[in-house]
Amino acid sequence: MKPAVIYEDEQVLVIDKPAGLIVHSDGRTDEPSVASWVVTKYPHMKGVGEPWMSPQGEVIDRPGIVHRLDRTTSGVMILAKTAEAHAFLKEQFQGRSAEKEYFAYVYGHPKEDEGSIEKEIVRIKSIPPRWGVARGDANKKRAAVTMWKVRTRGYDRDSKEKSALLSLLPKTGRTHQLRVHLKEMGYPIVADHLYAATKPPILGFHRPALHAVRLSVILPSGDRREFLAALPDDFEVAAELLLRG
């Protein structure tokens, strides 16, 4: 299981990460990752970026990594080949000028065709770790913002369960933001083992139906570029299994 290269130049590397591949070690397991693939294929990127301290106290190298995708999420990521490029890209992600778009299949049909949700994301004490929206005295300064739009409504061919394909535009980058926000809306992501655990998988999915389809950033050269990640096989299958209506 390896990433596919979408674009590269002397400063950046854009990849399509497959679902199931972790971005970097979590300090608990020894398994293939985007980080290990990078140091094998691009050894000069080792040391670029910022290491991470695991809960076990282990320093984890994150070569070139500017932003993350969950293990189960597929799609487009950009990595930096140099320290200068890393700082340049990091500023865009922190300043919210990098534009990210995701596709997600959800359970049910949202009442509106589009909208937004603005809720702070907080960690919930549980095993495995989960996140949720803040209640009561929520900190507006830490609120996560997600814009959403319905692309297709239908139902699963076999179970007849209602489902919809959404386009998601996160304006912030909190952990599990899209998964938590959609659950809060009442339309959790199909086959999400953490946030829709009581619902049966539909549309042929065996992992959360979330794909990072588009990323628009300014490259160190000064040019704004848009990168697209083709729909993975399970999304293609789901499109066939979703009957319109």
Describe the structure concisely.
This protein has 245 residues and is of the alpha+beta class.
Describe this protein's structure.
The chain is of the alpha+beta class and 245 residues long. It folds into two domains: 1-95, Pseudouridine synthase (2-Layer Sandwich); 99-214 and 227-245, Pseudouridine synthase (2-Layer Sandwich), CATH 3.30.2350.10. The chain is 16% helix and 35% strand. It is built from four helices and 13 strands. The protein has helices spanning 34-41, 83-94, 177-185, 233-241; strands at 4-8, 12-17, 52-53, 59-60, 74-80, 99-107, 114-124, 130-133, 143-156, 162-170, 210-218, 224-228, 242-244. The strands form two sheets. Strands 1, 2, 5, 6, 7, 8, 9, 10, 11, 12 and 13 form an eleven-stranded mixed beta sheet that branches. A two-stranded antiparallel sheet has the order 3-4. Strand 9 (143-156) and strand 10 (162-170) form a beta hairpin. It is globular and about 50 Å long. The model has no long low-confidence stretch (mean pLDDT 89).
